Give the backbone structure.
Amino acid sequence: MASSAAARRRQEMAAEGQRHLEETIAAAFQILSSMNDELCNPTLWSSSSAAAAAAAGGAGGLQHHGNNHHHHHQHHHHHGGLPPPPPPLHSADSDAADAAGGGPGGAPGSGGSLDEARHRYKVAMAALRASIAAVSSCAQEMGSTEHQADQAEIERLEEHASALRKNFSLNQLVTGAYLAMSIPNISQTTCFEHNCFG
């Protein structure tokens, strides 16, 4: 009974592991599909080109503004005045993030489906690993249970064989005693018949 219950539990775990494996494969396929969509999306490439152009223009403007600021700084230093604070820098990475939807007020990025697919893949893979570990543990438990059942069956058969051997020995003793008692009686009967009717 316990062995059949363990076998049924193992089958259920195997079915669950198969389901997690299918989910993992589907999530991996979704990752590839999302990557293909992003690579083949003309809007993404045009926005990336526009972001690169804006970053280059911003860098040129910063250089021109820096030259003017340096000239103005030299003029103030010549007259003994304090230099004004530098303007806040705007990097090309922030321009690219804004163009991809990462900055405030920007359009939503195109990596949402890819991030979702990656998260789904991680969850499915973790569940698959847990299911494999559970099936392995159940198999070890089943092996231990089956070994115990086999050992109990062996002990029962050995006890039965020992009882048969004892019964056979007892029968031999009874038969030997019966023969020992019967042989003198047969001899006496034969001798009596020979004397009386001989």
In short: The first helix runs from residue 2 to 39. Residues 2-162 form one domain. Residues 75-80, 88-110 have pLDDT under 50 and may be disordered. The chain has one domain: 2-162.
